[in-house]
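QA checklist item 7 of 12: single-chain prediction sanity check.
[x] sequence parsed
[x] length recorded as 97
[x] structure emitted
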Amino acid sequence: MEIKAKLKDGIVVVKAMAKHPMLTYDTAKKQGVEANFITHITATVNNKVVLDMSTSQFLSKNPIFKFSFKGAAAGDKLVMTWVDLSGATETSDSVIK
C-alpha cells in the first residue's frame, strides 16, 4: 500500500493506494477463479482509529482512498490495514509530514 499523509492547518490529509486486483464475482466467474476484493480498511494513529471502512466489489483495481482527520501531529505514524475476501491482510505505515 502506498500512503501519503500531510498535515496542514491542523488537518491531516491522506491519500493511499491499495495494490489489489479487486476481482468481482462476475469477472472471477469468467476467469474461472474465486472472487477476491478488499472488504475492510482501517487506519490508526497513536492507537486511535481514524478510519474504519467496509468496502465492496465495486471498487477499481488498485483503488485510491482519500480522507482527512484532526488530532495528529507531524512525525506521528499512520498505520493502514486492509483485509480481503480470502482473509489476506496487508499493513503499511507512513510518517505524517
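[x] summary fact logged: The chain has a mean pLDDT of 95.
[ ] second reviewer sign-off
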